[in-house]
Amino acid sequence: MKILLWSLLMGCAGAALAADPDQRLTPLSDPPPAPGFTLQDMDDATHRLQDYAGKPLIVNFWATWCPPCREEMPSMQRAREQLAPDGIELLAINVGEDLDRVFLFLADYPVEFPILFDQDSAVLEHWPVKGLPTTFVLDGQGRIVYRAIGGREWDDPELLRQVRALKTAD
Asked: What tens digit of pLDDT does each residue of 138-166 get?
């Protein structure tokens, strides 16, 4: 567990330096099915990946101690506001932290999308996460079609266009 968290910390530092200035998402040539999960949110409600089947979904892995994670959170909220009318949801999976720490963080970075908790990193271990933040975009069939390692401005028009195009493709 300590090795995993250390590698994520190092990945976070590297991701901050490697953030894509063009805001592109990396397409996966042979999109794998997204690993399922069942996680609780801040209100103790249960969220399952299959609850979001049939429509595109953005899944972000993050932590409060990660600078690019903090920087991208407001743009994720703006993106969610723009994508929600299209039926596209965004989930943020916090890795390795407790409810109190995240609650304090959200006082400074309020969001309306679900924040889920992977306190023991069990879900993280099944996803191809290279560092924090890592974000995946799933198509309506539950396949990982795009990946973004490092922070993004999620309300960037080109990035939103890529995500919305999945809605019409399914």
From this structure: 999 999 999 999 999 999 999 999 999 99
Nearest-angstrom CA–CA distance, 43 and 134: 24
Sequence-distant contacts of 33-36: CB under 8 A, at least 24 apart: 33/142, 33/143, 33/144, 34/59, 34/127, 34/136, 34/138, 34/142, 34/143, 34/144, 35/123, 35/126, 35/127
The closest alpha carbon to 50, from 128, 114, 142, 145, belongs to 142
Q: How far apart are CA 45 and CA 83, in angstroms?
A: 22
Q: Assign residue 8 the CATH number of its domain.
A: 3.40.30.10
For residue 11, with 0-12 CB atoms within 10 Å meaning exposed, 13-18 middle and 19 or more buried, which class applies?
buried
Q: Token pair of 51, please?
A: 């609850």
Q: Which domain holds residue 111?
A: 2-169
Report the C-alpha gap between 8 and 25 in whole angstroms: 20
